[in-house]
Amino acid sequence: MKRLLWIALATLLLLTVVPVAVLAVLPPPITAFMAADVFDREGPPVRQRWVALETLPKHVPLAFVAAEDQRFPAHHGFDLKAIRDALDHNAEGGHTRGASTISQQVAKNLFLWRGRSWVRKGLEAGYTLLIEILWSKRRILEVYLNIAELGPGLYGVEAAAAHYWLKPAAGLSPSEAALLAASLPAPSRYRADAPGDYVRERGRWIEDQMAQLGPAWLDGIVP
Length: 223
What we know:
A three-stranded mixed sheet has the order 1-3-2, with helices on one face. By secondary structure, it is mostly helical. It has ten helices and three strands. It is globular and about 60 Å long. Helix content is 55%, strand content 3%. The model has no long low-confidence stretch (mean pLDDT 88). The protein has helices at residues 2-22, 32-38, 59-68, 80-91, 102-111, 118-134, 137-147, 157-165, 174-182, 197-213; strands at residues 47-48, 149-151, 154-155.
């Protein structure tokens, strides 16, 4: 029995801690979401190109932090205030609001499957804790910007910028970065390069948030 417990523990470490530790320094060759798209024969081809965080203008990461997780520099993987606010909002009915942090989105996109279930949420929480313990905030944000789904088959800001505006992510303007961030969390429905009323309005809101936060918001994280 004791031996089986040690084997189970070693297997758990091999399947969870080791991959997270390796990806603290190496770019992920593929993510769970990308793999699902690769095996979907009817879907578009997967496009993704790694870009180092220090090559991006500061307004690119700022746009995504402003849109998705404004307390990213301060929290440890879970935004408790956002969770409470989402629970209060959802209890009133109407449009369901999420409260996933950037760290949680990285955990989900890298290691898990699409969809909703308590099992997946539990695994997501575990991977989020590992990522926050083993990675720096800078690394979390860098990986996020390279694996976020930003259109059908499009992963990361480099591939999205090339597809939508025929330019590298380093050439994105603040408004273009805001429109990319505005397409989340439904990039298959919303287009950053041909924004409808919702994406255009949300893009303007994100730009306002970027101005209020200021580029110094990510000091110590973004080079």
